[in-house]
Design brief:
TAG_lipase, 6-stranded parallel β-sheet, 5-stranded mixed β-sheet, secreted, alpha/beta, 449 residues, Rossmann fold, AB_hydrolase_fold, lipase activity, 3 domains, 17 strands
Length: 449
């Protein structure tokens, strides 16, 4: 068996047909004659994140045994073996490399998973193969940031946000996207840095990273008529912009008022409709809770539910993101309108959003209010980076007990919040950083949610 072997290993919540595998497979077969083996370990990878982490050493060991079987029966040169793993898959190939005695010629870790791996002896390391390299694109969040190979690449500083990305999941995926592009086009140049800080603070080059339009990559640099470089989204179409332009939240947003006088049947309110507001049960002396897509049992408050379904129902997630900004601006105008006619106090307002609703009026940040808190329960459909004055990470903030899907994890956030309101709250413990929160390393007790 003289043809080089490339082994691809996916990460958490993925399978053999996940996007990473065909993207790298096609790039490899485009440039050379290889035996490409795709490892499908979905039965262990589709569980909760912690359970999948525990499965990694065993999956890696079995992969190592399979490779030994392959070489023992068909021969071959261990130097021609290249193991490639993304996220948790990077730690799988590290364990496989150890199982075969570090004989694999090359290991490539694509943004090796970070949560629960900082002090984990089963993590990929430079002793797992003859040559071990890693590409870090979301270091410190979904990926590990420390150098763990013979060579560690930190494109754009190795952290979120990578060019064209808003979410950590996007930056995380850049690991395999950049690797696939490097295989197919061989056009990236690395600059050696003296240490990790130099790599992190390395200035962005003035020349474009991508010099021509290349199929398969969504975000690429292109020149305008004046020769200036811009990062462009090649998946965007004119129809996307047209659909966004048809959304008018100041007209289409409906605000449903609930009070203890009408706890189950809403009273609809509209921006600038004074009669509807004055005829409703809204009381300006009470606290006002704005829910963006129940509290009455715990406190006598005004609860306003924002219905922006006309902007949130698109099948195109990018359009929903864009619509959330204009819808947030419309909510702000509505609040100003209510205050003007009722004399309510902005300090009495509590705005609550779930999912995209949590980012009304651009990405959520501490400066958005006097006090901003965030509950994180999933790292794929949610956002794991710190966003508020206080960020809560129940059960590590990645996968939730009793859930077997990202949607279930994502929904736990509003269940937890509702329970905290009706039960008197949960006690949180302050952690020094995100990793400490995931590993549940406590610093001190803080106020309840």
């Amino acid at each position: 068996m003289h043809v080089p072997i490339k082994v691809l290993v996916h990460g958490w919540n993925s399978k053999g047909s996940s996007r990473m595998n065909p993207q790298i497979r096609d790039a490899l077969l485009h440039v050379g004659d290889f035996n490409v083996i795709v490892v499908d370990w979905r039965r262990a990878a589709m569980g909760t994140y912690t359970t999948s982490v525990w499965s990694v050493p065993g999956i890696g060991q079995h992969l190592g045994w399979f490779l030994q079987f392959l070489f023992n029966n068909f021969g071959g040169n261990w130097n021609n073996l290249h193991l490639i793993g993304f996220s948790l898959g990077a730690h799988v190939i590290g364990n496989a490399g150890r199982t075969i005695g570090g004989r694999a010629g090359r290991l490539t870790g694509l943004d090796p998973a970070g949560p629960q791996w900082g002090r984990n002896s089963n993590a990929i390391n430079r002793n797992d193969g003859v040559y071990v390299e890693n590409i870090h694109t979301d270091g410190g969040l979904l990926g590990i940031f420390d150098p763990v190979g013979d060579v560690d690449f930190y494109p754009n500083g190795g952290r979120n946000r990578q060019p064209g990305c808003m979410l950590s999941t996007c930056s995380h995926s850049r690991g395999y996207e950049l690797f696939a592009a490097s295989v197919r086009y061989n056009h990236f140049n690395g600059r050696q840095c003296a240490n990790l800080n130099d790599a992190r603070n390395s200035p962005v080059p003035t020349n474009p990273i991508i010099s021509k339009v290349e199929p398969g990559l969504r975000y690429q640099y292109a020149q305008d008529s004046d020769g200036n470089n811009h990062l462009v989204d090649l998946w965007m179409s004119i129809n996307d912009l047209s659909e966004t332009a048809r959304f008018f939240p100041e007209v289409s947003n409906v605000y449903h008022l609930f009070t203890r006088s009408n706890p189950t049947r809403s009273q609809p309110l509209l921006l600038n409709n004074v009669n509807m507001l004055q005829e409703s049960n809204f009381d300006g002396s009470r606290r006002t809770i704005v829910l963006i897509h129940v509290l009455l049992a715990a406190e006598n408050v005004n609860v306003i539910v924002v219905d922006w379904s006309s902007g949130a129902n698109s099948l195109n997630y990018r359009i929903v993101n864009w619509n959330s900004v204009t819808s947030g601006e419309a909510v702000a105008k509505f609040i100003n309108f209510v205050n003007q006619w009722t004399g309510s106090n902005l300090n009495q307002y509590h705005i609550i959003g779930h999912g995209v609703g949590g980012h009304k009026a651009d990405r959520l940040s501490p400066s958005d209010s006097l006090y901003t808190e965030v509950i994180h329960t999933n790292y794929l459909t949610g956002y794991v980076e710190e966003l508020g004055h206080v960020d809560f990470y129940p059960n590590g903030g990645i996968s939730m007990p009793g859930c077997d899907s990202n949607e279930c994890d994502h929904a736990r956030s509003f269940f937890y919040f509702a329970e905290s309101v009706t039960s008197g709250g949960f006690t949180g413990r302050e952690c020094l950083n995100y990793y400490a929160a995931v590993l549940r390393i406590e610093h001190k007790v803080i106020n309840s949610i």
